Amino acid sequence: MKPSRFQYHRPRSVTEAIEVKHEHDLDAAFLAGGQSLMPILNMRLARPEVLIDLNWVTELDGVQEVDDGWVKLGAMTRHAAVECDATIAAGCPLVTEALSNVAHPVIRNRGTVGGSAAHADVAAELPTALVALGGRIVAQGPDGTRVIDAADFFQFHFTTSLDTTELVTALMVPRLDPSSGYAFLEISRRHGDFALASVAMTLTDGVARMAFGGVSSRPVFVESAEEDPATDAVAAVSEVGITDDLSASRAYRTRLIATLARRARAVALARMNDGVDGD
Ligand SMILES: Cc1cc2nc3c(=O)[nH]c(=O)nc-3n(C[C@H](O)[C@H](O)[C@H](O)COP(=O)(O)OP(=O)(O)OC[C@H]3O[C@@H](n4cnc5c(N)ncnc54)[C@H](O)[C@@H]3O)c2cc1C
After folding, report:
1. Distance from the CA of 65 to the center of ligand 1, in angstroms?
2. Does the predicted model carry a pTM greater than 0.85?
3. What is the distance in A from the centroid of ligand 1 to the CA of 32?
4. In CA terms, which of 61, 86, 254, 275 is 20 to 30 Å from 33?
């Protein structure tokens, strides 16, 4: 199918993009990599009257180290660019690992980090990693800029705390303490499919900070100081509600949560020990 008719805008700046969005509000949609939006438009699941193409807003592109232990990912930075970025690999390796699980290279070449956050698929890897890391989302609208903790940003299936006229301008990722371990693991039917269950974890001084994707209505954060974090993980996700659908039963997802928690801790611990040995 073809999308229904729409007006096409090609802003050159964030200010211009927000002005157009403010003018048309819910009748307008931002177009980033188009990897999720274009199928939705083609199937006419959404019929925005106005498309605001962000691909010419160059100020939204790029990875930048900021002073106080954070790395800033411009919203229009492609998944593939972040995955291959040396600064990210050195300072935020959990993000590199998470992105390598997103779909396939051709999709990562177009898909953007801002689009992934705004789209808020509960099975998407980057939102899960951001919640585990305590990352932040920078949003700009007609009333100014605000910074939202990832844990507050992702609210429900395809639902965020963004206002209808706000644009995601950047994601902020804290640099990982070099003494910490990390792991991103997921279970999907085939490599590149959306996860039936995923976990992003950092391990610092025996405390695992993790988030689970694909198992609930949003990425769920869990902190556990237990050597076996499975019980804490299952309890925390159960509190939000474990998904039961055609892809996997609640009982199966419960087992995946427990198994992924244990495996991720083992991988994170092994990486910490590698660091201590100086290998
Ligand atoms: C076959 C296939 C498999 C996939 N598998 C995976 C997978 O395994 N894991 C995964 O995480 N993703 C997967 N994806 C989705 C892919 O990662 C998308 O790139 C991502 O979900 C959206 O990014 P985008 O830049 O393409 O956004 P778009 O599709 O352009 O936009 C998505 C939504 O976000 C809004 N939006 C975009 N940018 C902004 C912004 N800066 N501010 C505010 N709103 C904005 C748009 O208006 C739209 O509503 C898959 C896609 C396909 C086609």
Report:
1. 24
2. yes
3. 8
4. 86
